[in-house]
Amino acid sequence: MIVIKKIKTSDTYLIRNAILRKGKSIESCKFIGDDDENSFHLGYFTDEKLIGIASLFLISNEEFKEKRQYQLRGMAVLDEFQKHGIGTKLIQAAEKEITKLNASLLWFNAREVAVPFYLKLNYKTFGTKFEINGIGPHYKMFKKFETI
Q1: H or E segment at 131?
Q2: With b meaning 16 or more CB within 10 Å and e meaning fewer, what string describes 38-71?
Q3: C-alpha dist (Å) from residue 33 to 43, 46, 146
């Protein structure tokens, strides 16, 4: 059985550590804003096992003019479950949630290797490639949404 639901911040740490912060401490998996009242985390479960995560933060990027923006961070799927559409389903669930919250933009810093995945989901790059120290090359990406 497959379920996508909201999860606790602490539920994200093991997958963040395994996929996004390999070889780093579990402390490096705690993000500023994780527990803010407007932040939320989604988990993708198969047979009650958490295999994918996405964290969303109500954070405006001054490079975009939309009033209500969410930032995606900590998007990850366990290695053995990648390339099976799980990331796509997590992003779609995140988009649905933020539009319910009247957000008009989702933005994030995508690892260079993930850019083709996001382009397939109609996200656009913004600006030029940049380096996140200790993590690697990234591109800022975004998608706009209609609000009611």
Answers
A1: strand 124-132
A2: ebbbbbbeeeeebbbbbbbbbeebeeeebeebbb
A3: 18, 27, 25
pTM above 0.90, yes or no: yes
Measured CA to CA, the distance from residue 3 to residue 24 in angstroms comes to 29
- Digit-coded pLDDT (tens) for 21-60: 888 888 989 999 999 999 999 999 999 999 999 999 999 9
d(CA 4, CA 52): 9
Q: Which residues pair with 3 in a beta bridge?
A: 45
Could you tell me if 134 and 88 are in contact, meaning their C-beta atoms sit under 8 angstroms apart? no
User: What does the pLDDT look like over 2-27, one tens digit per residue?
Assistant: 899 999 999 999 999 999 988 888 89
